[in-house]
Amino acid sequence: MQETQHSTIYASTKSDLSSCETYSPFTHRPPPWYMQGEGWWMVLSLLRPSRKLLKHVKHLLDEESSSSGPAPSDSFRPHKGFRGGIGNVQIIRYDTSPVGPYDELLIIPSAFKPPSESIDQSPGLRITQLYVSTLESVLNGRRNWNTPKKLARFEFTEVVGCSNKIKLEVYALRSFGFTPFASSTGWYFEPNFYETPFFNVIMDRHLPSVNIPVKLKQLPMLDLPLLQPPLQAADPLDPQSPEINCGMIGTSEWKRTRFDLKGSCGLCSFTGNLSGRKGQFSDGDHFPDIQPYRLGIHFPRVYLKVPAPTLLSTPEPGPQINKKSFKIRKTIHSYMPSFPIKRFD
Questions:
Q1: Which of the pair, 137 or 235, is modelled with greater confidence?
Q2: Distance, CA of 148 to CA of 251 (rounded, Å)
Q3: Where are the domains of the chain?
Q4: Looking at domain 3-320, which CATH architecture does it have?
Q5: Burial zone of 287 (CB within 10 Å; 0-12 exposed, 13-18 middle, 19+ buried)
């Protein structure tokens, strides 16, 4: 594959990341984040995702785990703690965010349970693959919420002769480099993307607009927090420049985030348009080979608030009750005869 280049200039600024004690070209944007944009939702499942989808997601995460070294736990395997529910793919074009405009493609296969050692066992939604169009979003998303963001190039174009149809092509990152200014006050970031997209879809908004007001809090099946496992450390952006790698370090805590979404929505349809693969949306290598419902949701305007996450709590170290032994003792006690107690004065 050939490569295309898109250079970006970053100036040197003081980083707010606690783990980085030096100067960084990136600025930490802590939560809450308030964002606005246009969105599309592709519905994958209503109760349980297909075995094929889970197999694809598991395969991709296992590959990522092995490429980054041994995973610290089963948290990185999506089949662990699976609960079911509504699965979806989201495409959002943010024109307002703390890190400026950017595009986003993500998949939430379903809801999952937290690790068994967590005190709060309520399930949450999990993002397993997530691509964005700017490096600032990658670094801040990983740091703030454990979201596994990766950089990609997004191309939105109107289909010729049909203004209601939009084609989206997403290109994976192949390689990148950082070139310091001669004055040493900033860097050129030079990403190289594959020329063939790994995700290609045509979104048709020709259907009658319904414009139904939607608030996530009014939809019990979707009003679940985001529950993200710890992130493994990603490959350093530049081995020779530690100050550039602040956002790529791993995390060690589970994070639960109760986000809020609202806006008006209507219906739209989706058609897979991957070259050489009739009707297919994605290549199965960079993104799962999905088979969504024909009809989905279009948000002409969506408003999203993402607050600071909470860390999952675990029991304090100390004597633990043997639940099995306790149950046996309780059963034996229930069969013991009850004798009257005679009092001696």
A1: 137
A2: 11
A3: 3-320
A4: Beta Barrel (2.40)
A5: buried
